[in-house]
Write a structure and sequence with these properties.
Helix content is 23%, strand content 28%. The chain has 411 residues and is α+β, with helices and mostly antiparallel strands.
Length: 411
């Protein structure tokens, strides 16, 4: 056995085997247990299980280990549907009963609120997806240059590796239409991709839309959400679980429009999903987006449905609310930022605008919790935190936080 050169030999030897009880799962999908008070992190476990693990890395405050054996399994342990589970890095929770997945993800949002936001607030149980397998309407399999044996697997990164690809011929969380198209797309990538492309590797796109399964990232495609149809570019961001997305939109609308609020700002509007879906509940709506291409499609989507009380504008990062004609006094603002969350410049502008309500939609509860701290320290209070499980069997969770401005009398 060759010990890695950078291996730190304490507190465990390389490949030392230990037993531990799993306390909880962190939001990265790893189980946490302790050996003589020392934290050990291990994948593919469930809280309450007694497991045998093998140490492969020691850090300054914790160690990482591979799972060898489940000595005392949880009642929530189930058989994964995918034969590649634990080898492919795409899913982390297929071994956990789905109801228990929802409870675990809810607890993770709760813990992040407390840890990253210093906020004590009850988190509602995560809303389940109506479909827990075959739900994903977009996948992007990768392939590297051929290895020394000429092999060129097409799929997703191997668990725990940065470059190795697991060959994935079918994906159980992708829609049926995508899985039907996948064999042909794989064959085209290798046989018809051209020698240069095969030599450098690449990424495939399979996106199920109203036009069928599309693989051209620049193609303008459409997706129906509730009563509306939205056009967007196949390779650009658009939520890829159509089975729960209408529920998410309905939740946002119910909170953004309550208490007689008459105006709406959608501050990361994209192609207009929230702005247009919620338009009928408001007198006027402004959608703001830094991408000109997205704004153009948002305007097209408004024209398709003859929605006339929504205006879309290019937003400059340093003056995002400058050209909005109504004040924040009777306005809700929806923010749906990228995974990194909001920067301080944007947060300060939003606080200066003084909207009555803020609906914060996040694909990363860790950065959401960090940002929420600024709002609750500056005249806002949380009224609800509701996770939505857009990504069953993975560690990912969408979280929606509702904040309302504290009145001047209470400040």
């Amino acid at each position: 056995m060759q010990i890695p050169k950078n291996f730190i030999p304490t507190p465990f030897e390389y490949h030392e085997e230990v037993e531990l009880k799993i306390d909880h799962l962190v939001n990265l999908g790893m189980g946490v247990g302790r050996v003589n008070g020392w934290v050990v992190m291990v994948p593919f476990v469930i809280p309450g299980e007694l497991v045998k693990v093998r140490i492969y890395r020691n850090h300054s405050q914790f160690s990482e280990a591979d799972l060898l054996e489940v000595l005392e399994p949880s009642e929530s342990r189930v058989t994964p549907k995918c034969a590649l589970f634990s080898l492919c890095g795409g899913c982390q929770y297929q071994h956990i009963d789905y109801d228990q997945q929802l409870k675990i993800k809810t607890q993770q949002v709760q813990e992040l609120l407390e840890k990253n936001g210093d906020i004590q607030f009850p988190v509602s149980l995560a809303k389940s997806s109506k479909q827990v397998y075959g739900y994903r309407s977009k996948i992007t399999p990768h392939y590297n240059r051929p290895d020394k044996n000429g092999e060129q697997p097409i799929g997703f990164l191997k668990y725990g590796r940065r470059h190795d690809i697991v060959d994935v011929k079918q994906c159980v969380i992708a829609t049926d239409a995508i899985n039907q198209s996948l064999p042909e797309m794989r064959e085209k990538a290798i046989l018809e991709g051209g020698k240069k492309r095969r030599q450098r590797g690449g990424t495939l796109l399979l996106r199920e839309t109203l036009e069928g399964v599309v693989n051209n990232p620049k193609a303008v495609v459409s997706e129906k959400v509730g009563a509306l149809t939205f056009q967007f570019k196949a390779g650009e961001f658009f939520q890829n679980n159509p089975f729960i997305l209408p529920d998410l939109v309905e939740f946002v609308q119910s909170h953004a429009s309550e208490n007689g609020i008459t105006h709406l700002v959608d501050a990361y509007c994209g192609v207009g999903l929230f702005a247009l879906s919620l338009a009928q509940a408001f007198e006027s709506v402004v959608g703001v987006e830094i991408s000109e291409a997205a704004i153009q499609l948002a305007k097209v989507n408004a024209q398709i449905h003859a929605i006339e009380n929504v205006r879309f504008q290019i937003g400059k990062a340093e003056a995002i609310f400058q050209h909005i004609e109504f004040t924040g006094e009777n306005t809700s603002v929806i923010i749906d930022p990228p995974r990194k969350g909001c920067d301080l410049v944007f947060i300060q502008q939003l606080l200066d605008y003084h909207p009555r309500k803020i609906i914060y939609v996040s694909c990363d509860p860790a950065t959401q919790a960090r940002d929420l701290k600024y709002f609750v320290e500056n005249a806002y209070r949380l009224t609800e935190v509701q996770p939505f499980d857009l990504f069953p069997h993975t560690r990912h969770i969408e979280s929606v936080a509702v904040l309302e401005r504290i009145s001047d009398e209470k400040e």
